[in-house]
Amino acid sequence: MAVCHTAQKRVLVTGGSGLVGRAIQHVINEEGGGKDGEEWIFLSSKDADLMNKEETQAVFQKHKPTHVIHLAAMVGGLFKNMRVNLDFWRNNIYINDNVLQAAHEVDAVKVVSCLSTCIFPDKTTYPIDETMIHNGPPHASNFGYSYAKRMIDVHNRAYFEQYGRSYTSVIPTNVFGPHDNFNIEDGHVLPGLIHKAYRAQKEGKPLVVWGSGTPRRQFIYSLDLARLVLWVVRDYNEVEPIILSVGEEEEVSIKEAAEAVVRALDFKEEVVYDTDKSDGQFKKTASNAKLMRYLPNFAFTPFEKALKETCDWFVANYDNARK
Question: Where in the numbering of this chain does the NAD-dependent epimerase/dehydratase domain appear (predicted)?
Answer without folding.
Answer: 11-247
